[in-house]
Amino acid sequence: MLVVMQKGASEETVKALVNAIENRGYTARPIPGGERISIGILHNTGSVDANHFQGLDGVKEVIPVTKPYKLVSREFKQENTCIRVGDAVFGNGSLPVIAGPCAVESEDQILSIANSVKDAGAALLRGGAFKPRTSPYSFQGLGKNGLELLAKARKETGLPVVTEAMDVETFDLVEEYADIIQIGARNMQNFSLLRRAGKSPRPVILKRGMSALLQEWLMAAEYIMEEGNNQVILCERGVRTFVRHSRNTLDLTVVSAVKKESHLPVIVDPSHAAGVREQVISLAFACAAFGVDGIMIEVHNKPEEALSDGAQSLYPEQFKTVMEKMKAIHAIVGKN
Ligand code: PEP
Ligand code: MN
């Protein structure tokens, strides 16, 4: 249920409404909008009687919410959510690009990549310090040292950093260093991790699970928002299908489907979708044309020596060309 307030409703009127909702045992969540404020009613076990609130002071209308997700839905908030990090804005029609290696491997590696992606026009630097690897024998990331190297790269280039929090135990540490915290595909339904991310002051990139339905993905985002963190960026990274010609299958249609259902920004990671760099390049062009809210691409200075995801990492020179072309494509078709 959503209580929409009249334009210009005073703070006291809103507060009185919040009290009226809470006195009935529900949670009230004010949602500021462009024109007027709305108040979402949460934690109702059964249906809520609209008549309780319909005639109260300052109330314009009471709208039943038909979707299982609430805070993430366009029923609750019509305007796009814009998330600003450094100079980048996700959700305003621009195309911020997050680029960097799969994993931070050494000081030379991360500084070299950070400088080249910055020169090419990337808005943020990515790099994993805690890596969710399929095999326990694969490189697991540098941990705290990786975070320190990211901080060094940020200082040198001015680029904000995106890095993954893999579990609740190391979340505090990652939060100290990250400008945006990534929750990976394998952890999309790690509910304790989602709740912890919901208590963070940092924006969160929530990657789509490799076989997640749109509804499951949005419900995962709902966990984060329900804890109070409204800064959620959704990231499509390909889903598992029967094909063998690419690592995963990029599902671009989910971007438009999600944007219909939700006000949250949706970015795309063509690197983990494709798994091989030639495919990453053409998918990146498709993303730029599609009107996505941002792109995340893996770049490595020596992909053949990379400790993870070398085959899908672009060479810095390739990335530079891709950036120029994406910019041109986005200028023609991407903005709407
Ligand atoms: C990554 O971004 O390096 C990563 C592991 O991504 P995903 O969770 O999408 O597999
Ligand atoms: Mn990777």
Write the layout of secondary structure elements.
Layout: E1 2-5, H1 11-23, E2 27-32, E3 37-42, H2 51-54, E4 59-63, E5 83-85, E6 88-90, E7 97-100, H3 107-120, E8 124-126, H4 144-157, E9 161-164, H5 171-177, E10 180-183, H6 191-198, E11 204-207, H7 214-226, E12 232-236, H8 253-261, E13 266-268, H9 270-274, H10 277-290, E14 295-298, H11 316-334
Parallel strand pairs: 7-8, 7-14, 8-9, 9-10, 10-11, 11-12, 12-13
Antiparallel strand pairs: 1-3, 1-4, 2-3, 5-6
Bound molecules: phosphoenolpyruvate (PEP) and manganese (II) ion.
Phosphoenolpyruvate (PEP) binds at residues 102, 128, 132, 184-186, 207, 237, 272.
What does this protein look like?
There is one protein chain. Helix content is 36%, strand content 17%. The chain has 11 helices and 14 strands. It has an 8-stranded parallel sheet. Helix 6 packs across helix 7 (214-226). It is elongated and about 65 Å long. 46% of the residues are buried. The model has no long low-confidence stretch (mean pLDDT 96). Bound molecules: phosphoenolpyruvate and manganese (II) ion. Phosphoenolpyruvate is lined by residues 102, 128, 132, 184-186, 207, 237, 272. Manganese (II) ion (MN) binds next to loops.
Instruction: Please identify, by name, the CATH architecture of the largest domain.
Output: Alpha-Beta Barrel
Rg value: 21 Å
Helix content: 25-40%
How do the SSEs run, as a string of H and E?
EHEEHEEEEHEHEHEHEHEHEHHEH
Distance between the termini: 30 Å
Strand content: 15-25%
Domains, number: 2
Total strands: the figure is 14
- Reported by name, the CATH topology of the largest domain is TIM Barrel
Compounds present? phosphoenolpyruvate, manganese (II) ion
Describe the sheet with the most strands: 8 strands, parallel
As laid out across the biggest beta sheet, the strand order is: 13-12-11-10-9-8-7-14
Low-confidence stretches: none
- Shape, principal axes of CA atoms: elongated
CATH class of the largest domain: Alpha Beta
CATH-assigned homologous superfamily of the largest domain? Aldolase class I
Q: Could you say which structural class the secondary elements and strand pairing correspond to?
A: alpha/beta
Q: What integer is the average pLDDT?
A: 96
* Count of alpha/pi helices: 11
